[in-house]
Design a protein that fits this description.
The complex is a heterodimer of chains A (280) and B (304). By secondary structure, chain A is an all-alpha fold. Chain A has 12 helices and no strands. Chain A is globular. Chain B is mainly alpha-helical and 304 residues long. Chain B has a single domain, classed as Orthogonal Bundle (MetI-like fold). The longest helix of chain B is centred in the first third of the chain and has 40 residues. The chains are: A mainly alpha (280), B mainly alpha (304).
């Protein structure tokens, strides 16, 4: 009798928990579904047809967004920026972290703590000064300028993460490589980088998200529509065609889907990165 | 080897080792240190972005102290942050607690709850802007929410959520929470999973009920993690800007301004670079002191 009651309450509890979790999960997914759904409608149907699955699917919006909406250019730009910035961050920050961890030079600790301090101090309005600087350097409206700025954004955190990994690397590995005739660069590339592969995964995923989704600096630094990334392009498109919802939703889908796919594949590393940051 | 050759070798070695850091250090100096200095420096000038610069001492700061729009904007960001701290974090914690057990589809939930955080603020803002659309066509509401409210028999609830100054900020704050709770969820779930299960067993043997266990085991063990989430939430939400831009696009005069909006508009709309920098400096100081206080609190909590 008592056992039965126990099982009953256990099941009621687990059902309740599932209802709670499932309703939140639906709240997360539904707006995204709605975006995709509306991307398949036309300007005539999108305002009147409120059924969950539209009666008639229209694939033309993606083509329209891609050509007329200039999204082909935006998309390619976003890919270029993300690839360049993330590659730059991984190379530059791992080189620096290797030196901080394993090599000696005067002033090393001061420079390292400058990077750590930069991570602690939020600079919400530094984009004003950055804009002034980039104008002075004639790097406004250049891909190169934007890429350098974005590399700087991810640098501190990546150096710190790389350094914690390099600190754990066994000295025997290095010694063996040195005996085999590896120089410092050789050790960094052949020993340290493969050893830090988990760190690289975390750094790549978080910085890719950050660059792909960045808006403020892209707005300030890139006025030429041929150089704009997706996020900026979406706002420009919305400003110019505020009522063309199906094409806008197609554009949003194009901006959202790649990042969701990357996330689904790299999800393990995101969880690891976030929990590591807190506990480690 | 004589002394000189040794010194030369050491110098060469040091130089080589420094060269590893050089790319990172130069980017850091140019794009972080210099703007940092320039921001403080410019805040003492009256400057329109081009032309002559006039040194005006603390005038920008004096004006800022009496700028009602500026302090309102801080209040708005504070309101959004407060909703995130209470509603969003409570939801995240509840979800983390619900997932911290042997439960089916745990991986699915964990996967889904982190989808809104990986989307950009522009995408989230524009999706919700569409869902919250207040307009009608042929007597039908075209925005999903109003259509749903009307169709499900609550026509009195139909509302111009983003157009009405009374509800705009709360609506934004809720969308902001929708986008943000996944962060807290993942971090808190990871924290819960590090709690030693023996502590729960011990509590059970001591005859503690579910609530007692929660307040005496879970909460104290989770305090450091909760404080990290609190700091991240404050720093993130105070700087919210793009989401608001995407949702209302300056449609509401000053009712949904946040500090970054003010800095942006001082710079872009009125070309007052010095004033924008003064705002940025004050805002940065507010953020640093808030995170400093929270850090101190969390250190204290860890000691106990």
């Amino acid at each position: 009798m008592k056992a039965n009651r126990y099982i009953f309450w256990g099941m009621a509890k687990s059902t309740f928990i599932h209802i709670f979790l499932m309703s939140v999960a639906l709240t997360c997914l539904f707006p995204i579904f709605w975006m995709v759904r509306c991307a398949f409608m036309t300007n005539d149907t999108v305002f009147v047809d409120q059924s969950i699955i539209p009666h008639h699917l229209n694939f033309g919006n993606f083509a329209l967004a891609w050509t007329k909406g200039n999204f082909a250019v935006y998309f390619v730009n976003s890919v270029i920026y993300t690839v360049c910035v993330v590659t730059g961050i991984v190379l530059i920050s791992s080189l620096a972290a290797y030196s901080f961890s394993r090599l000696k030079f005067p002033g090393k600790n001061i420079i390292f703590y400058l990077f750590v301090a930069a991570m602690m101090i939020p600079l919400p309005g530094s984009f004003v000064a950055l804009f002034v600087l980039m104008t002075k350097l004639h790097l406004i409206n250049t891909r190169f300028g934007y890429i350098l700025c974005m590399i700087n954004v991810g640098l501190s955190m990546s150096i710190l993460l790389f350094k914690t990994f390099f600190d754990k690397m066994p000295h025997e590995l290095e010694d063996a490589a040195r005996i085999d005739g590896c120089g410092k660069i050789g050790i960094w590339w052949n020993m340290a980088m493969p050893f830090a592969r988990p760190a690289i995964a975390v750094i790549v995923i978080f910085n890719s998200l950050n660059v792909w989704n960045e808006y403020i600096l892209a707005t300030l630094l890139l006025g030429d529509s041929q150089l704009m990334p997706l996020q900026r392009g979406l706002v420009v498109f919305q400003g110019a065609n505020s009522t063309d919802y199906p094409v806008l939703m197609a554009g949003l889908t194009m901006a959202a889907v790649p990042i969701i796919i990357v996330y689904l594949f790299m999800q393990k590393h995101i969880v690891k990165g976030l929990s590591g940051e807190v506990i480690g | 080897m004589d002394q000189k050759a040794k010194a030369a070798a050491l110098f060469k070695d040091n130089l080589q080792n420094f060269l590893f850091v050089l790319p990172a250090f130069s980017i850091f100096c140019i794009f972080y240190i210099y703007p940092f200095y320039k921001m403080i420096n410019l805040s003492f000038y009256d400057w329109r972005g081009i032309g002559p610069m006039h040194f005006i001492g603390f005038s920008n700061y004096q004006e800022l102290m009496g700028d009602r729009l500026w302090w309102n904007s801080i209040g708005h960001a504070g309101y959004i942050t407060l909703i995130a701290l209470t509603f969003q974090n409570a939801l995240a914690f509840a979800l983390a607690l619900a997932c911290d057990r042997e439960i089916r589809m745990k991986r699915f939930y964990r996967l889904v709850f982190f989808i809104p955080p990986v989307l950009s603020e522009v995408v989230v803002g524009l999706i919700w802007n569409w869902i919250l659309n207040p307009e009608t066509q042929n007597g039908q509401y075209i925005g999903l929410l109003n259509h749903f409210l009307y169709a499900s028999g609550f026509p009195q609830l139909v509302h111009n959520w983003l157009g009405d100054p009374k509800t705009a900020l709360t609506t934004i704050a809720i969308v902001n929470s929708w986008k943000g709770f996944g962060w807290g969820f993942i971090i808190m779930l990871a924290g819960l999973q590090t709690i030693d299960k023996q502590l729960y067993e011990a509590a059970k043997i001591d005859g503690a009920g579910a609530w007692k266990t929660f307040t005496n085991v879970t909460i104290p063990m989770m305090l450091p993690v909760i404080l990290v989430v609190v700091i991240l939430t404050i720093l993130g939400c105070m700087q919210v800007f793009v989401l608001i831009l995407a949702m209302v696009n300056e449609g509401l005069v000053h009712h949904t301004d946040v500090p970054v909006t003010r800095i942006f508009s001082a710079m872009q709309n009125t070309n007052r670079f010095g004033y924008a920098c003064a705002q940025a400096v004050i805002f940065g100081m507010i953020l640093v002191s808030v995170s400093f206080i929270s850090k101190k609190l969390s250190d204290k909590a860890k000691q106990v």
